[in-house]
Amino acid sequence: MKFTHCLFSILLAIQLSATAQFRFSPEKPQVGQTVSFTYTPQSTPLATDSTLEGRFVFYGAPNAMHLSRPTTATLAHQGNAFVGHLFVPLRGATGIMMAFRNSKQPKRIDLNKGQLYVIPISDANGQTVPHAIAGQSSVFTRSHFLYELGSRPDQNRVVSLYTIEFQQNPTLYPMYWSDFLAAQIKQKKPGYGPKVKLGIDTYLASRPTPTATELTEAAALYESMGDFPKATALRERMKTLDPAGSLVQKDRAASIRNETDWTRKKAAYQAYQQEFPNSSYTPALTVMMTDGYFKNNDIKGLLPFVEKQPVAHTDVLMLNTMAFQLADERRSLPEAEQLVKRAMTVLKTQPKPGDVTGNWDAEKQVRQRQLMNTYARVLEQQGKYAEAYTAYQDVMVPDDVENSDPRTNERYFLCALQANHAADAQPMAEAAIQVGRATPRLKTVLRDWYAKQPGNTAAKADTYLASLEADIRADQRDELQQVLINEPAPAFSMTDLQGRTISSAALRGKVIVLDFWATWCGPCIASFPAMKQAQSKFQNDPNVQFLFVNTREGGPLQRVHNFMNRQPYSTYGFMVPVDANQRVSKAYKVQGIPTKVVIGPNGRVRYRQIGYSGDPEATVNELTLVVEMLKDGK
Predict the structure, then answer these.
(1) 83: closest CA among 93, 73, 91?
(2) Class (C level, CATH) for 2-168
(3) By the 8 A CB rule, do 43 and 49 touch?
């Protein structure tokens, strides 16, 4: 009786604790009724706020928690209080839980000290309906309502609510037992471990034939307490109980993922599909197998595998990536064509994937262009230039050249040239050059084609290309003017790999490009092809000198000799002075390598750039412009 009296006192406190700020009518609302409520914010965190709104959820039994979708309740300001109305659904609801907040500053909120404001539902006899108390705990443990409001549940309260419900309605325990024990684990009261384990064992023992769900929940409870042997034993028991159940499917799916032999992996996947045709793990396995066919170069097997997959299980972007890589590498081109055709067919009827949050029709158009670009590339690589040119026309967007892909622009014009449509593609190529979306190869090919047209010469072609680049180069020059510096250039004298003395005094009056590097520096070496291109632009200009200054090497000089002997850069005229003691790099404020420093003819440092962006064209263009500007006295 003492325990019952305590529970009754707790229940009374729960129901009456908020009455000073929150009242509702009727006092014992039933389903199908409209509840009017009054909220008085005095003595709450919202006491000084005037723009308030309610935020509420309906709740019910665990299988009715889909009702717990947070909804906003409009409030009317009446004197010192706010009033509102809520209609109680006819089915499922056993109560309402509310919070109040400033509608313009949602972080200003009253959660009733984390308990929320509660409207329990009663039956026709005025008795609180089953689940009206434990359902509150379900809001805390099975929904994100409290987290949305910026708070976390009080596990002591959660346990108390469950305890009260079980005292009033003992038959409901099987619906809440695992949530109740999980709350005790989170509560972490002294001695909770043995108590919870006893609770698990007692409950399972009371069930003549525990369900797969009950065994799964029990295993999860043991696992959360770190008792993995017990958890494993329960899962094995579950497999015996349900040999075709989710746990067995999960383990089998994991074994397929972990299989390293490709032949066995394929056989295991086929067996899995036959045994579990509707498994929820199949879509992820299918994506993995699709990738496996490609990575194992099983392209012949990939095609029939992809063809028989349901539309919903097909990742068109993955197929697109595979087809494009095959095309770029000029391998299995007929299969690549079939692959991208399959992707385009799937896309036409594919439902909106779960990872797409925006407008699906708009996203489908984007993906269709990606697929068509790959299709054009595949056709082009097979020498089907007329078909490829037609496909590229569906890819190109003349009104959006500024956002176009330079490589696609290049391929489009090259394909048009092969299909005798260069004149038709010329405007797009010109526009790409004018807005800086053209590759060096596209510029070269367009210039060479232009030079061969009737009445043109190589000189006219150079002028033509320069006119196309004039505006973008002027813009780039203006941008570079903002980053140019003007510092004294420290004098230097170094010996290069051939034993020659290289000094700033001997190079006075020239534009000097210093590229500080080391053999162990990956980005340094990665930037060398771009530096080769930049140097080649001035290879016949006696007023420009590139110096590849080896610094911070940290090893024998022979390592630098060996590196250069293995590379083609010596034949390209790379002059490599050695900064053995880092005197030059320190003098030029080199904080990391690679660092490019450009000295003007007047002996002043005008440009310093650390690192390498990975974009060779951008590096070449920027260095070329800097050198040209300094030659022009800018």
Answers:
(1) 73
(2) mainly beta
(3) no
